[in-house]
Amino acid sequence: MSLCAASPYGDCRKCHGFGFATKTDRKGRTKRGKNCRRCKGHGKRIRVGRHLYNLWLRVARDGTDTPSAAAKRPAPKG
Predict the structure, then answer these.
(1) pTM beyond 0.70
(2) Which of 55, 54, 69, 14 is nearest to 36 (CA)?
(3) Which of 5, 50, 67, 70 lies 20 to 30 Å from 77, alpha-carbon distance?
(4) How far apart are CA 63 and CA 59, in angstroms?
């Protein structure tokens, strides 16, 4: 968990952090390919532990949310 707190993003597992696929031309030299679809060309992904922590935090915030002022007002009579 400390790794997720210190560095919440890791290298993309599909493109290995490059952000794109590598391909070779006809002479065998490597060239830049298309952007990675998984990380959208950024080369980074959110770690599993950090993702679970974010989900837990969102559920905890939603569960302990105080009601708004509009919900406390009585309904108008009429």
Answers:
(1) no
(2) 14
(3) 67
(4) 6
| 59/46 Cα distance (integer angstroms) | 18
Token pair recorded at residue 45? 């992904």
Counting every residue written for the chain, the total comes to 78
Residues pairing with 10 in the sheet: 45
Q: Say if residues 31 and 20 touch (Cβ distance below 8 Å).
A: no
Listed residue (2, 1, 35, 38) closest to 20, CA to CA: 35
Please, what is the Cα angle at 21 between 17 and 23, to 5 degrees? Answer: 135
pLDDT, tens digit (0-9, with 9 covering 90-100), for 8-34: 878 888 888 888 888 888 999 988 888
pLDDT at 1 over 80: no
Do the beta carbons of residue 45 and residue 19 sit within 8 Å? no
